[in-house]
Amino acid sequence: MTALSEYEKLEAQGLWQAAPGDQRREVVVSMGNATLVIADMDDRALTHWSIPAVVRANPGQMPAIYHPDGDSGETLELAATENYMIDAIEKLRRGVAKLRPRPKRLRLGVVLGAIIVLAALAVFWLPGLVRDHALRVVPAVKRAQIGAALEEQMQAATGPPCRAPAGAAALLRLAERLPARRGTGTLRVVRTGVDSTAMLPGGTILINRSLVEDFEEPDVVAGFIVAERMRARAYDPLERLLDHAGPIAAFRLLTTGDPGPAALRRYARYLLADAPLEPVADAALLEGFAAWSVRSSPYAFARDSSGKSVLNLIEADPFATTAPPPLLRDADWLRLQGICGG
After folding, report:
1. Which has the closest alpha carbon to 267: 293, 292, 241?
2. What is the C-alpha separation between 251 and 113, in angstroms, rounded?
3. Pick from 215, 205, 328, 217: nearest CA to 277
4. Nearest to 207 by CA among 166, 174, 241
5. To the nearest 10°, the Cα dihedral for 258, 263, 268, 270?
6. Crossing angle, helix 127-137 and helix 247-256, to 10 degrees?
7. Per-residue model confidence as pLDDT tens digits over 40-64
8. Cis peptide bond prior to 63, omega within 30° of 0
9. Tens digits of per-residue pLDDT, 16-48?
């Protein structure tokens, strides 16, 4: 990523629209850590956009209109007078583009890669090697794109993410309190389709609305988020997708940069059919709860109200005798509970 230090204090005013048909709002746009931070006029964060995934809808035209890759309904409009911010965004987007494979090199790499892969298959028949190589070379931006495409496939069952503005702002604060060590760290609350939580390639976590609506404290949903982050350390979400989709999807990912829509549809149905979650050892979970300063006992009782099967998480709670930093203010927790509009 192009260095961001020269833009750290850069701010601009713009018009933000959360979804088609919504009223446009005056916002303040500033550069964050590899993100565009969009806040209201009272400096409350409304959303964060990953700069590598920002798309300009009208190149060369003014006012400049941007949207997140894969979500053209959410837009940010910057007037020509905000040329410093527009130039900064364009410079960073060009920097990201330079890091991506160039077409001629990509075509040559595809041909050579295909020959090597076919030779390996013909001689050894080791599709696991192809999968492992794909996992090593796929960049974070591509993982996020695959995750966004998978989320779109799942929306037939989950519906669009809940976006009540006050709740969405509170969800952003929870994501900031529980930052991802790798990936986007985006949190989305959905109405149905996901039993509890589901991690997508790229780091987005889908959360069933029940985890924010049915409990009196945010420690429960925070616990499920920590558990997903620790599960992703042990079981790469992209690896899980490729294991389910098979070697052909891995070959496609290596040669075209896309596992294919059919593979994504199949995996989306698998996740929506209550795919079993890979277990995470209690020791690893407790390590995560300590690292993110979250109590483990509320999460444990949410999993098993009797406490019998989660006794280790209750007895070894790293904050059994001391209070960790608050996850959210009470007002923000109430707003988050209303993110799906009741």
Report:
1. 241
2. 9
3. 205
4. 174
5. -140
6. 40
7. 888 888 888 887 788 888 988 999 9
8. yes
9. 898 888 889 999 988 876 778 888 888 888 888
Six-digit token pair at 276?
């079993």
Q: What is the DSSP letter of 80?
A: G
DSSP H helices, the chain, are 83-99, 103-123, 127-137, 140-158, 165-177, 210-213, 219-234, 237-245, 247-256, 261-272, 282-291, 297-303, 311-315, 330-337
pLDDT range class, residue 126, cuts 50, 70, 90:
low
* 164 has a pLDDT exceeding 50: yes
Tokens encoding 36: 């565009």
| Non-local CB neighbours of 15 within 8 Å, separated by 6+ positions | 24, 25, 26, 27, 76, 77
Structure tokens of 31? 């550069």
Q: How far apart are CA 101 and CA 53, in angstroms?
A: 16
Q: Give how far Cα 191 sits from Cα of 8, 153, 275, 317, Å.
A: 37, 15, 18, 30
Mean pLDDT value across residues 142-163: 92
Q: For residue 13, give the nearest of 34, 30, 36 by alpha carbon.
A: 30
pLDDT in tens, 217-257: 999 999 999 999 999 998 999 999 998 888 888 888 888 88
